[in-house]
Amino acid sequence: MKKRVSRWTAAALGAAVAGLIALQSCGGPGAGAGADVSAVAQDRGLSEQDVLAAVKTYQPTGQQDEYVMFGSGGHSGQVLVIGVPSMRLLKVIAAFTPEPWQGFGYGSEEHAAIFERGRMEDHEITWGDTHHPALSETDGDYDGEFLFINDKANPRIAVIDLRDFETKQIVTDPNMGTNHGSAFVTPNTEYVIEGAQYSVPLWEDYADVDEYQDVYRGLVTLWAFDREAGRIDEDASFSIELPPYWHDLADAGKGPSAGWAFLNSFNTEMATGGIEDGNPPFEAGASANDMDYLHVINWERAAEVAANDANVRMARGMRVIPLETAIDEGLVFFVPEPKSPHGADVSPDGSKLVVSGKLDPHATVYSWAMIEEAIEAENFSGTDDYGVPIIAYDDAVEGQLELGLGPLHTQFDDQGNAYTSLFIESAVAKWSLEPLELIEKINVHYNVGHLAAAEGDTRSPDGRYLVSLNKWSIDRFNDVGPLLPQNFQLIDIAGDPMQLLYDMPIGIGEPHYAQIIAADKLQAMRTYPEIGTDPATMEVSENAVRPGQERTERRGNEVHVFMSAVRSHFTPEYIRVRQGEEVVIHITNVEQAHDATHGFGISKYNINLSLEPGETQTIRFTADRAGVFPYYCTEFCSALHLEMTGYLLVQPRNFQASLQD
Ligand code: K7E
Ligand code: CUA
């Protein structure tokens, strides 16, 4: 993704803004306020910088954004799709949480199958804590085909197809307590990396925390992605057993470090909390040491090792490379990293890794060449308690730069600069990788976690825009009660100094991370390609109907209805069943017009579908409640939308009249 030629040169824009402001002094308030830009700016108390920010972000109606940002929706379990630079919310993708607008989890069999696979410990889970979205990559560049996102709370990964922006798959990791260092993809999306966070027993089902060091284990899973199928291949996926440290953010190497993955850890103290038993509380015990271990993992070689059944042990149905094997095969190495690190970010050229953590004011820059050399020369300073070789800090670190208070996550631009969030300071630090120098800081509001830069995780970032994903908003917006929105702040990083352009409140869960892709890389469908497409397979469903083929069939205790939806009509208009019968409705939206979506809601049965043009879905339910239930289209699709309706007639068990088929 390379630079585009802007329609305005910087000088012309500057002149225009200066002109607007100059006009203020002669025009004055009242001189055509409402029609005159300078008068409006003056009337609203806008500075020249404000007007410039507005000009940089405003999209006239009908004009599309140059970038699209995919942001996590935190514990809403969803994904936000936002246009950049306008910061207009384009879509909320249901990932782990049922969502009625998309009809996700409200009756469709296709979605029920996804949720079924997402069950954990035989329980239905209807929320997720999404942290890190990862766009699929080809050769280290976003390719716009798929998006992955983790659920930290219930260790799962969702796969979203960016042809229709729908969740197609949820996989569960049976061996993790929670995941956090996920989802991160390898340079050709061979694998989706999932790092666990809080360790739990691995080879045994239960052990008290007394046995923490012996029985609890850390874990990283490499989910194999089958791009052709558009799904994670669970059978080809594997995990690597790790010591019971707590694992944090991860990243995949690229360029010279391709084939490797990096994982932060904390609580290498193996603190087990228990203040009630007179122990140090978790937050003190888990941050006592000056150093934790950066995990350097050879995933490419691990995949070869895992391919041999003799090298893996099964744990709850997953293939796991035991730690001992991982050490023997040279899959895992440690490098000390300062005190409870959080962010781990590989530079665009893959030669460096930036690590920073809440309790140390520096960014620590590791050199891949130095790490590789130490591994090849087997130059280790010793091992940890579990036998993992440790590379000495000085043999791996090329430098440190003091940035400020609470550095967390780092992004990169196209000029060799890095941008690191400063959580405690509520600021973003811009610094150069070579030489290691702080360039400037900009304040953000407030308590920034991650940053997202345009194409920021690729081998060729675009620079231009940076979004600060802030945890607190305090006084930025109108009061909406004690639960406040979080705040996405758009920053112009095209020149010095950085300029804050726009505040976007996020009215659902806490955004953790986001990725920004050039809009022209996305190839979203405008309608499903053929009438009757099943979004689960992207092929024409055997249950699809064409106009004129609508019908009702009784198959034993099941009533199958083959229904069409078109402006402004459902066929059939009556569904007559007996109480207790199993009702299966296959609905096809037979339209091919762009944006001609219909909904299908049945009253009191908790059913609602969204049927995009060309889509077929199936609903299955037991008609356990007798009575008359209107169904209707839940999208205002046409002038006769209110008439787009029908009746589900559920004849009571004791009803005498004979039922017409
Ligand atoms: Cu820093 Cu989950 Cu990436 Cu939140 S994490 S910020
Ligand atoms: Cu179809 Cu309203």
Descriptive overview:
With 661 residues, the chain is mainly β. The strands form eleven sheets. Strands 8, 9, 10, 11, 12, 16 and 17 form a seven-stranded mixed sheet that branches. Strands 36, 37, 38, 40 and 43 form a five-stranded mixed sheet that branches. The model is unreliable at 1-10 and 23-32 (pLDDT under 50). Helix content is 11%, strand content 42%. It is globular and about 85 Å long. Helix 1 crosses helix 2. The protein contains nine helices and 45 strands. The longest helix has 18 residues, at 10-27. Bound molecules: sulfanyl-(tricuprio-$l^{4}-sulfanyl)copper and dinuclear copper ion.
Radius of gyration: 28 Å
Backbone shape: globular
Structural class: mainly beta
| Bound compounds | sulfanyl-(tricuprio-$l^{4}-sulfanyl)copper, dinuclear copper ion
Q: Which regions contain 5 or more consecutive residues with pLDDT less than 50?
A: 1-10, 23-32
What amount of the residues lies in strands? 35-45%
Annotation field: number of helices: 9
What is the count of β-strands? 45
The whole-number mean of residue pLDDT values reads 93
Q: What is the percent of helical residues?
A: 10-25%
Cα-to-Cα separation, first versus last residue: 59 Å
Outline the biggest β-sheet. 7 strands, mixed
Topology readout:
Blueprint: H1 10-27, H2 37-43, H3 48-57, E1 67-72, E2 78-84, E3 89-94, H4 109-117, E4 130-138, E5 141-151, E6 156-161, E7 166-172, E8 179-185, E9 191-196, E10 200-201, H5 212-215, E11 216-226, E12 231-242, E13 246-252, E14 260-266, H6 282-285, E15 291-298, H7 299-306, E16 313-315, E17 318-321, H8 323-328, E18 332-338, E19 343-346, E20 352-356, E21 362-367, H9 368-376, E22 382-383, E23 389-390, E24 397-402, E25 407-412, E26 417-422, E27 427-432, E28 437-443, E29 448-454, E30 463-470, E31 486-492, E32 499-506, E33 514-518, E34 533-534, E35 539-540, E36 551-555, E37 558-566, E38 569-571, E39 574-578, E40 582-589, E41 598-602, E42 607-611, E43 616-622, E44 627-632, E45 645-651
Parallel strand pairs: 12-17, 37-40, 39-45
Antiparallel strand pairs: 1-2, 1-33, 2-3, 4-5, 5-6, 6-7, 8-9, 9-11, 10-11, 11-12, 13-14, 14-15, 15-18, 16-17, 19-20, 20-21, 21-24, 22-23, 25-26, 26-27, 27-28, 29-30, 30-31, 31-32, 34-35, 36-37, 37-38, 40-43, 41-42, 41-44, 44-45
Helix pairs in contact: 1-2
Dinuclear copper ion (CUA) binds next to loops.
